[in-house]
Amino acid sequence: MTDTTASSIKKPKVVMVGEVPLGGDHPVTVQSMLIVPFSGRLEGLGERFQAFKALGCDILRVAVPDMKSVKDLPQLVRLAPFPVVADIHFDHRIALAALDTGIAKLRVNPGNLGPEWKTLEVLKKAGDKGIPVRVGINSGSLPQKVKDKQDQASAMILAAEEEIEIMEKGRFYNAVFSLKSSDVETTYRANELFACRYDYPLHLGVTEAGPLVEGIVKSTLALSKLLARGIGSTLRVSLSDSEENEIITGKSILRALGMSTGTDIVSCPRCGRSTFDTQAFLGAYGDRIRKSGKNITVAVMGCTVNGPGEAAAADLGITGEGNHRMIFRKGEILGRFSPEEAVRVFFEELESS
Length: 353
Description:
By secondary structure, the chain is of the alpha/beta class. The chain has two domains: 6-256, Dihydropteroate synthase-like (TIM Barrel, Alpha-Beta Barrel), CATH 3.20.20; 264-352, Sulfite Reductase Hemoprotein, domain 1. The protein has helices at residues 45-55, 67-79, 92-98, 116-129, 144-147, 152-169, 184-197, 212-228, 243-256, 278-290, 305-309, 339-352, and strands spanning 15-17, 20-22, 29-33, 59-63, 84-87, 105-108, 133-138, 175-180, 203-204, 234-236, 264-267, 297-300, 316-321, 324-329, 332-337. The strands form three sheets. Strands 8-7-6-5-4-3-10-9 form an eight-stranded parallel beta sheet. Strands 11-12-13-14-15 form a five-stranded mixed beta sheet. α2 (67-79) links the parallel β4 (59-63) and β5. It starts with 14 loop residues before the first strand and ends with a helix.
């Protein structure tokens, strides 16, 4: 029986993804994946990438389904302020070509690249170039010989071990693994089992987690349990939503666990006392607050009851008071302003924080 006590978890070795280290004692990083095809659509991506970076994205993955996409990869890599991972399936020639484009990591499932010699060819070139490979094991696409195994977590481990055998045959060890299921408990157990047996860094995530609310709930339950045990070197919160919300959720999980810094936004739900629409304010300005890069707590409250009172500990806050807005710091009222003026003063105070 495998020992899965906390003391048996192996410390992951360090794998460099460009200039971003995964594993060892390095901080857990946040990833996302570009949700639209990029080939022929590079205009405006530089600005989007900068926005992702400001929200806390450390690594970005992009799907590379064909040779046409490979041709645009070098320019995309130049636009990106973070390492780019090329996600490739089925055609080892695409993987070989992508390794010449400046990418920082290759994401493949060696089992779907065809005969073993094709996988070994890709691994050799990746090894020669010093480019790591992420091996993705998803419960929904397991090899046929383990697919019907009743215990899905154990089946995922068997699939991972098959991939490790292929890699070690090619003397390739510069790898990151992910073991993802759409089921929270299966995801947890598979990663726990792997972390007790192997020292490859783990990329955490719940695959096909669902739309915004359901996806956040599932991902938070699985990832927080693993991270609290010291399991996981990087993560992606997979949502049927925007890249921005994936990044924000990932950063928020790490911040709530005390594993990352950044701007913590606290806000109250709306009620009959509210004279300030917190939801509308955060919808308009939430990302601007997050992108400030300030390691502070910002309170956005609906009324004076929840304003400088309950949110007295906030480094900066804004709330409603009748037709006016009140801005405060650590419970001390800085002034009362018209709605338009309050926005200007609020961000001046945020900038000076």
